[in-house]
Amino acid sequence: MLKLLTASQTKEADHYTVINEPIRSSELMERASKAFVKIFIEKLPDRKKQILIFCGKGNNGGDGLAIARMLIDESYSQIKVFIADISDKSSEDFELNLERLQQKDTSIFYFKSAEEIEYQECDILIDALFGSGLNKPLEKEWEKVVKKINQFSGYKVSVDVPTGMPCEGELFNDVIIKSDWTVTFQRPKLNFLLPISSPYIKEWKVVNIGLDENYIQSTSSPYYWFWKGDIQHYIKARQPFEHKGMLGHALIIAGDDETMGAALIASEACVKCGAGLTSSMIPESGLKALNVRIPEAMFTNRATLDDLDWEKFKVVGIGPGLGNNENSLQILKTVLNNYKKPMVIDADAINMIGENQELLKLVPENSVFTPHMKEFDRLFGTHNSWWERIEKALKKAVEYKVYIVLKNRYTMIFTPEGICYFNSTGSPAMASGGMGDALTGIITSMISQGYPIEKAVQLAVFTHGFAGEQLAQKMYVVPATNLIKSLPYVMRELLAGK
User: Which of 31, 379, 389, 492 is placed for a possible disulfide with 354 were both Cys, Cβ 3.0 to 4.6 Å?
Assistant: First the structure.
């Protein structure tokens, strides 16, 4: 589990590494530039491409100068370097790398204003004007420079962070380099994981520059990044004498006459992920479809709701396609008044709780809410930004002692302990109806099988995204039904990789 850092914490990690490795700051810059160049060559190996490198006079500019020198040493022959001489100040490491670059046969141009930058055709443009240290909006001449560079043709590559973008928090403004590819150091920046980065970063890649990992992991931060290696530690192999009674009985309460598909998707995902038993409480109008589509699932009649033996269910998943009407609200109230173990609450169940806030007090501890952005706002109020949602989710997860799965490209999991986990898997190809219903079924299944709630949620979210990623390599769009069919194979692959 990788801890994510703010810009100031990253600077402290730099300083700690320099002091304790020990290593000079210029040597750390050299290491970072080598890591950038290595991955650059792998992706863009054509040495004859025309490359423009724009450098500021701080350490990000120093990176740019070192990168220019190294690319020349790697036989990239069409390189021009542009130095923004807008500020009188420059860093020591910038000056050192400028001196080193001047010993090479390359073109270096200085400019004090955007007007001095002539538009040029290029294949690749490397942005090394400002890095992670930027703490205020770019204005005046800098604003003009960024807007001018954004008009340049060519594939734009940013060093560490696109110029103008803060690593975390609200964007200052839209004066930001529009990067096709950002090569960032040691960790993804928090803003890379949010939709606010979308206009400015099409793709990003993390390279390790050797910062002290023990120091980073000891840093106080609520943000973590989990990936395949973490999940493979969680997943359990089936034991020789395990049977369906030992792997939990899950109850899915979902569906309405016109939204039966959501209930079937959630139920099938629960079955395919390995719940010992899955019961589906759906309208009778969906019984034939349930028997045909998912013969492994059992039908539970809603007429028996008041007399249900709640204790036999390890977990209840409720909400997909349930509808938002008086009958649905009564079902939800009955469940909340009778079931006291963790629940998975999605879709219409979230919307009804949002409209009836008193129901929040009835939600059992360690339950899991799975909202998308609009459902989150219906539940906890309108928010003007993703950072407002993150702050609210951290607060509400602790307040109500629940897990909040805020669905997105990099889905966030907020815990009762005030932690935010970012999931590393997923694909835009998964942007289709039913994906959230599938996730509800997967989470319900994992809890049913006895995984601790936090691990169950992480395992479910990762597996959901991982299955989508794999299918996206072969499919333009990944329908939920295709993803569900792949789940047993994906889980087997994760288990085999332990």
Answer: 379
Binding site feature residues: 59-63, 127, 131-137, 160, 163, 262, 321, 372, 407-411, 436-437
CATH code for the domain in which residue 97 is found:
3.40.50.10260
Binding residues for AMP: 407-411, 436
SS3 9: helix
* DSSP for 183-213, written as a single string: EEESS--GGGGSGGGTTTBS-EEEE-----H
Q: Which of 201, 221, 241 is a domain's end point?
A: 221
For 471, the domain range is: 228-496
C-alpha 356/C-alpha 475 separation (Å) is: 41
Walk along the chain (498 residues) and give the pLDDT tens digit of each residue: 999 999 999 999 999 999 999 999 999 999 999 999 999 999 999 999 999 999 999 999 999 999 999 999 999 999 999 999 998 899 999 999 999 999 999 999 999 999 999 998 999 999 999 999 899 999 999 999 999 999 999 999 999 999 999 999 999 999 999 999 999 999 999 999 999 999 999 999 999 999 999 999 999 999 999 999 999 999 999 999 999 999 999 999 999 999 999 999 999 999 999 999 999 999 999 999 999 999 999 999 999 999 999 999 999 999 999 999 999 999 999 999 999 999 999 999 999 999 999 999 999 999 999 999 999 999 999 999 999 999 999 999 999 999 999 999 999 999 999 999 999 999 999 999 999 999 999 999 999 999 999 999 999 999 999 999 999 999 999 999 999 999 999 999 999 887
**Cβ distance 353 to 360 under 8 Å?**
yes
Q: Are residues 161 and 259 in the same domain?
A: no
Q: Which of 221, 236, 260 is the last residue of a domain?
A: 221
Phi-psi region of 51 (alpha: psi -120 to 50; beta: other; left: phi over 0): beta
Q: Alpha helix (H) ranges present in 128-276?
A: 140-150, 213-218, 228-234, 260-272
| Residue set of the binding site for (6S)-NADPHX | 59-63, 131-137, 160, 262, 321, 372, 437
Statement to judge: residues 419 and 441 lie in one domain: yes
C-alpha span between 168 and 193 (Å, rounded): 10
157, two tokens: 């590559």
Question: Which residues, 6+ apart, have CB-to-CB distance to 307 below 8 Å?
Answer: none
Residue ranges of the annotated binding site for K(+) are: 60, 127, 163
